[in-house]
Fold this protein.
Amino acid sequence: MREPPRERSGGEERLPTRSPADAPASGGETLVEHLVERLSRAERELNLARDEIEDDTRHRDLLRQATRQIAGPERVTIAELVRSALPTLGRWCLVDQLANGRGERQLVTHDHALDALAGVLHGSVALDGDPNLGIVRALQRRRAERLAHVELRHPAGGLDDSHVPAWWSALEELAAGPVLVAPVSARGRIVGALTFGRGQGEPAFSEREQRLAEEFAQLAGVVSEYQRVAGIAEAAARTKSEFLAMMSHELRTPLNAIAGYAQLLEMGFRGPLTEGQRDAVNRILRGQEHLLTLVDAVLTFSRLTSGKLTIDSTELGAADLVDIASEPLVVEF
């Protein structure tokens, strides 16, 4: 090992001194730097975990609110349901539903600047249309997907912009940013799709947001099934009401004829009646009145269930009410 050059001072040789900059870092300084780095990394991880917990809490609150909406007394539509997911899941949501073999589309927005597009996109959607968006994509892929942007297939071929449909221009404006498509299932089949979207340049959807969208799609499936069952029940109620009204009308016609001819016999238009014949005619009239009362009750029930019953109020003394309630109904035949 080569010795460092010696310096002479006053006739004596001595080794040159080393400056602090040339001295190696001590073990204590290295340990401090390592601890500072670990603390910084732990702080970053702690902040990330805190953000994830806050997101999960907010997502649970959204799902809890949506569940209460469905379980409430008021009927909820899918559009009203997904409105609560905005703006957490984007600026807008396309709600596509299958009804009687046809697609129906509605745009739900959180940004009032997109309200004009909602009127353009509301209505039917072709099930053989563009396969990259909404219900058509859900029917083909059958799973939730996150897309950086959507490449739409131009519907007008080589036509100029003046011939492009307004709804297509609206879709192009919406699909410029990140998109998240979640299928809506009920009874094991696809019945719709929720397409959430953000503006151009906004951050892409995360895996956690995709799970939230899938949860909302499941709730939308519950709402869709409830709408289907409620529609069947309403159709059955209308059919029953119409049947009861028709039956009541058809029964009143012959009953009125029976009463009219019985009254003619009682008045002697077919000749004088014996006491026995007169008693039989009276029994016919009482039976007709009783049966007519039953028919009127059925008709009243029909109007009541259909919401078409008109109630007229009148003053009635307590004594008269007691007499009416206590009077027995006697039917003689």
User: Anything to note?
Assistant: The longest strand covers residues 189-197.
